[in-house]
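Structure (tokenized):
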């Protein structure tokens, strides 16, 4: 063997951790315990199997996480990407990693859709329906979200007093040309001395002067829906409380946890994670989706308060 070729081979073996250097692992594979991206240089082009479970050998020769958008690695439609770059089934929690504390937010990204009062589900003439004080109407949505993490109209319980039909409801949380206008906003959270995260407004009009403009004859824009998508690590003992009007649907792990539908005065409900753990399908130590859907459908009040003991919430901006 020529000396130059010998030294080149030795250099390659050393870079891959095969030599007995201080940087090698016990099995001689520096990628075996889950490398940072590119942590093994270009060695995987010589031995693709050396990339750890959950990683693949990219076209640039670097060990790459399964779902890494910048490198063109995406999960299938039936999967989602966890915070550590693994593709898991949509219904499967990322139980071994939890949420990354560096991703915890102090404001929640929300998508608001503005509607006009002419929509059949907004500014309903309740008096004509024999209702003078509003109506709390449960079971408008089914107990589970659909595959796109959207609420499903409950055709089994229909008809409803405050919702015309499935077609009208399906427009609430989907972009529909000429029917609604989508506007992104953030809700700033305040952490109390007890650690609870809170957002509180007794005059909740986040899109005044935007979208279709303020409601005719009013100083505010009263007709809108709002959705937010996030995830959290369930540690035990968490609660989530909503107080306000009108509709509020909270889903944990894709399961309905708070149901305050209808056009009504201020209502309050609390989701106790421990008490609901069985019906929600959640276990301590795992990470779950938290999806919230809200609608402001009638003049002249708009109240919105959320409070939770969840320690860390991570916003998701790719679900809307």
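Design, position by position:
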């Amino acid at each position: 063997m020529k000396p130059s070729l010998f030294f080149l081979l030795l250099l390659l073996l050393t870079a891959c951790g095969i030599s007995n250097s201080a940087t090698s692992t016990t099995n001689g594979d520096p990628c075996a315990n889950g490398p940072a991206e590119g942590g093994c240089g270009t060695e995987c082009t010589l031995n693709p199997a050396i990339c750890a479970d959950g990683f693949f050998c990219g076209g640039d020769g670097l060990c790459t996480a399964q779902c890494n958008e910048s490198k063109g690695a995406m999960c299938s439609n039936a999967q989602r990407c966890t915070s550590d770059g693994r593709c898991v089934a949509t219904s499967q929690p990322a139980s071994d990693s939890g949420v990354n504390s560096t991703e915890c937010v102090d404001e929640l990204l929300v998508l608001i859709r503005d509607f006009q009062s002419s929509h059949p589900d907004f500014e309903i003439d309740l008096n004509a329906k024999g209702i003078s004080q509003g109506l709390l109407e449960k079971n408008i949505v089914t107990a589970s979200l659909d595959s796109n993490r959207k609420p499903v109209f409950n055709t089994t319980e229909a008809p409803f007093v405050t919702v015309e039909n499935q077609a009208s409801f399906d427009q609430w949380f989907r972009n529909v040309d000429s029917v609604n206008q989508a506007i992104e906003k953030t809700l700033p959270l305040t952490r109390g001395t007890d650690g609870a995260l809170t957002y509180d407004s007794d005059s909740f009009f986040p899109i005044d002067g935007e979208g279709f403009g303020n409601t005719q004859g009013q100083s505010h824009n009263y007709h809108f829906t709002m959705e937010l998508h996030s995830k959290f690590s369930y540690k035990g003992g968490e609660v989530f409380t909503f107080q306000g009007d009108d509709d509020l649907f909270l889903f944990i792990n894709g399961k309905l946890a708070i149901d305050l539908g209808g056009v009504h005065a201020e209502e309050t409900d609390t989701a106790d994670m421990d008490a609901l753990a069985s019906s929600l399908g959640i276990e301590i130590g795992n990470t779950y989706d938290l999806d919230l859907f809200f609608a402001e459908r009638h003049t002249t009040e708009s109240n919105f308060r959320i409070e939770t003991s969840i320690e860390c919430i991570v916003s998701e901006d790719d679900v809307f």
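Reviewer-requested clarification: The mean pLDDT is 82. The radius of gyration is 25 Å.
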